[in-house]
Amino acid sequence: MVTPDRDDPDDRSPIDAGDLDRIYRVEGPRLARYLGRRLPSGQDALDLVHEAFLRFAKARSDRALDRPGAYLQRIARNLLIDRSKRPESKFAALHVPIETGDELREEARQEQEIELKDMIGQYRQALDELPRKTREVFLLQRVHDLTYREIAERMGISIPTVQYHIARALVHLDQRLDRL
């Protein structure tokens, strides 16, 4: 008689339905807001929330997750990345349904320009909140396309210090822009 091996991935149990319901009630609205800020349609955001939870529920784990919200957000980010790689999504913003005619609505274009200006303002404000050195390292890498080595040489710091400042900037920007 063969006994199941504890480390066998096929022997792991799925996430408990009660736990999934509790996690959905807590994390679902937060995930919907997160995706809603990144997608043009609220329905698309809800679809991805459901897809994220479907993948989360299908995941098998032999231990409870300490931070299911973080795991769900990673799933959602991966879904966004997958979605952006699809050919049809690259041109979705330019799509004009036949029944609306050939002209883009001026109102929608103005609204998009206002939202873009607002987003740029929020991004700049978040950048201004960074410590001077962290902001400088981040801008050298992201705006001027310098390598970590070039930044380290230019600023007289080590490459791990450059990595630290980049990570610090990314965490701050992600947290700051997620709250908006």
From TrEMBL:
GO biological process: DNA-templated transcription initiation
MF annotations from Gene Ontology: DNA binding; sigma factor activity
Highest taxon of source: Bacteria
A Pfam family matched in the record: Sigma70_r4_2
Database matches in InterPro entries: RNA_pol_sigma-70-like, RNA_pol_sigma-70_dom, RNA_pol_sigma70_r2, RNA_pol_sigma70_r4_t2, RNA_pol_sigma_r2, RNA_pol_sigma_r3/r4-like, WH-like_DNA-bd_sf
Domain annotation RNA polymerase sigma factor 70 region 4 type: ranges: 122-173
Every RNA polymerase sigma-70 region domain range: 24-85
Record flagged with keyword Translocase: no
Keyword Cell wall biogenesis/degradation in annotation: no
Assigned keywords, A-Z: Sigma factor, Transcription, Transcription regulation
Sequence similarity: Belongs to the sigma-70 factor family. ECF subfamily.
Protein name in the entry: Sigma-70 family RNA polymerase sigma factor
